[in-house]
Amino acid sequence: QVQVVESGGGSVQPGGSLRLSCTASGNIFSSYIMGWYRQAPGKKRELVALVTGGGGTNIAGSVKGRFTISRDNAKNTVYLQMNNLKPEDTAVYYCNGDKSLPIVVAGTFDSWGQGTQVTVSS
What we know:
The structure is a single chain. Helix content is 5%, strand content 45%. It is mainly β. The strands form two sheets. The chain has a six-stranded mixed beta sheet with strand order 2-10-9-4-5-6. Strands 1-3-8-7 form a four-stranded antiparallel beta sheet, with no helix packed on it. The radius of gyration is 13 Å and the shape is globular. The protein starts with a strand and ends with a strand.
């Protein structure tokens, strides 16, 4: 597992865009599968998107076509570009990563960062 700091959240109107950033510690970032997750009030945390060290991605069906995940291994950073935001995207967004795909898919990490709040409202 890596140590991460998320940023870039905020309040936007429906249809707006935000780009979240997640910077990770360590010098083996490129070997980690990184995921973006979100947790809405009263709901379980869910995986939104993941990106492998080589850049392969998988996007949840609920955000496919609107969200894009990417990474810059030279900067130890993973991004989540969110377009055409909807009120149901309102949540705290977290990133995390591991070398194990099952752990990233299940989100079974020992610890999490503080996340970044995204609020979509008119």
